Amino acid sequence: MILNRKTVLIVLSIIYSSLAWSNEMLIKENHKVYFKSNNSKIFLFEDQNYCFDKDAFSIEHLTNDERKYLVVNYTEDCNPSGEHKIFEIADKKAVSFYLASLYDPEFFPNEGKIVERFKDGAIGYTKIYTLKNNRYNLTEEVKTLDDNINLSTTFNNGVKKFQLKDNSNKKIKSFNISVDRLYLYDDNFKKKKSYFVKGDILSLYEIVEIKNNLYIKVGYKGNDQIGYVLLKNLILDI
Predict the structure, then answer these.
(1) Among 1, 82, 196, 227, fewest CB within 10 Å belongs to which?
(2) pTM here?
(3) In angstroms, rounded to a whole number, what is the distance separating the alpha carbons of residues 97 and 110?
(4) What is the DSSP annotation of 147-158?
(5) What is the pLDDT, as a whole number, of residue 57?
């Protein structure tokens, strides 16, 4: 079989790319970690309680240009779901990305999205960063409150919007009270003497933030103008 010049060049390019990739690795010298790419050795960070693995990295294209980003697993126990550090690699230097440290990140470059997942004790968090004007910004945070109940906070031009959602990302419109007594608040967010009891079913409407407390407007038995309840009192253990 005779190969034409173009085919030969393509094959050689593939071979060269494969060899170049195989030459990329993390190395550790004198408690310092470097990224080795062909003949270049780029300093990343001091090795301090870092579980070293020469292959614990990935190369990502996160922006709408030719820039490359190095994502390094930075955990003490080599946990792939732990902390990751991100560096922009350019001119044989590594510059910390403005989202320099993420936990269990998943990258969707074609959608311009990064998803971060982590836990704080028993509470799970998901953060979604979206690319706009070639920069990633936090656009949504989802916090697990209870089984199949999550608090979604979206961020748009400095304005926060809150919603209760289930695990399928659908808005929760009603709620069966599981606490013994749930007090009602008026439109001025003053506590009233009236309250709901366990087993009452409330219709749920908008959530507002007042002095770092979240209140959710509720309806009961067809009346949607009853008032508000404190979200932290609506659900146990939050």
Answers:
(1) 1
(2) 0.80
(3) 19
(4) TTEEEEEEEETT
(5) 87
Q: Report the chain's terminal Cα–Cα distance, integer Å.
A: 70
> Residue 118: CB partners within 8 Å, gap ≥ 6?
103, 104, 124, 125
Mean pLDDT of the region 183-211 = 95
Residues 6+ apart with CB under 8 A from 84: 71, 72, 73, 74, 101, 102, 103, 104, 105
Burial zone of 105 (CB within 10 Å; 0-12 exposed, 13-18 middle, 19+ buried) = buried
Q: Is 67 helix (H, G, I), strand (E, B) or coil?
A: coil
Domain residue spans in the chain? 25-103
Contact between 84 and 101 under an 8 Å Cβ cutoff? The reply is yes
Residue 13 reports pLDDT greater than 80:
no
Identify the pLDDT of residue 225. 67
Q: How far is CA 206 from the centre of its chain?
A: 24
Least confident of 13-27, 79-93, 218-232: 13-27
Cα Rg of the chain, angstroms: 25
Q: What mean pLDDT do residues 207-234 have? A: 90
Share the mean pLDDT of the chain.
86
In the DSSP assignment, the letter for residue 53 is -
Tokens representing 89? 């690699």
pLDDT digits (tens, 9 = 90+) for 27-50: 888 888 888 887 788 899 887 767
- Other CB atoms within a 10 A radius of the CB of residue 137 amount to 13
Report phi then psi at 169, rounded to 5. Answer: 75, 20
Beta bridge partners of 72: 57, 85
